[in-house]
Amino acid sequence: MMIFAHRAGAGRRLADALSEYADRDDVVVIGLARGGVPVAAEVAAALHAPLDVLVVRKLNVPGQEEIAFGAIAPGEAVVINDRWAKRLPSGAIQFVVARERLEVARAQHKYRGTRPPVEARDKVAILVDDGLGTGATMRAAIRAVRRSQPKEIVIAVPVAERDSLNEVSREADKAVCLAEPQQFTAVSLWYVDFPTVTDEDIEEALTHQEAGVHHALT
Fold it and tell me: How far apart are CA 23 and CA 49, in angstroms?
C-alpha cells in the first residue's frame, strides 16, 4: 500500500514517473487548484517545464454540500453527473453553475495576476492533481485545456479510484498514476500530511517556479 508523506513528496515521485517529458520545450505542467498545485510545482521543477494553474470547482448539491453533482473549469467547461442531473431542478443546476463560474474567474485572476496563461497549443499538457476520486474535476480540466489545442493531454495523479481513472483516461491521451487502491474512500487518506492549500500557497508556488524557469533560461 502506497502512502505519501505530503503533496510535495508525491509530486517528486510523480515526476520520476514522468521523466520522459523532462527537458523538453514542448511540455507544460498545469496544476488543478487547489490541491494539485503543490504536486504540480514539484513535477514542473523536476521536468524543467513551465507551470500554470487551472481553477476547477466542484458543483455541490444545494443543501447537501458534501455531495458533488459535477465540476466546472474555465472556458465554459462543465461536467454534470447524469444521475444527479435527473434528480435536481434545472434551475438549481444553473444557479450553482453560475455561482461557481464567478468563483472560477475570481480565483484565476487572483492566482495568475498579470501573468498570461502558459501557452499549451501544440504542446504536451500535463494536468496534475493530488488525487482522483470521482474524476469530475479532472474531466472538466481536460475539456478546458483541450480548447487550447495541445498535441497531447497527459493526466498525472499520485493516487486514484480505479474506475474513475479508467473513465477519465478515455478523455485524455495518456494517464500516469502511482497507486490505484482497491479501497479508495478519499484522497486525503493516502497522505500522512494533507493540509488545506491556501491562495497564498498557490501564488507562492507560481512565483517561485516562474523565477526558477527564468533563471534556468538566462
Answer: 7
Which pTM was predicted? 0.92
Neighbours of 12 (CB within 10 A): 15
Three-point CA angle 140, 133, 60, nearest 5°: 60
Q: How many CB atoms lie within 10 A of CB 161?
A: 22
CA distances from 41 to 17, 62, 160, 164, 217 (A): 15, 33, 19, 24, 18
Per-residue pLDDT tens for 41-70?
A: 999 999 999 999 999 999 999 888 888 899
Taking the C-alpha atoms of residue 130 and residue 37, their distance in angstroms, rounded to an integer, is 8
Tens digit of pLDDT for each residue in 92-136?
999 999 999 999 999 988 998 777 889 999 999 999 999 999 999
**Which residues, 6+ apart, have CB-to-CB distance to 197 below 8 Å?**
7, 33, 34, 35, 37, 38
Residue 215 clears pLDDT 80, i.e. is over it: no
The dihedral built from the CA positions of residue 93, 94, 97 and 102, taken in this order, carries a sign that is: negative
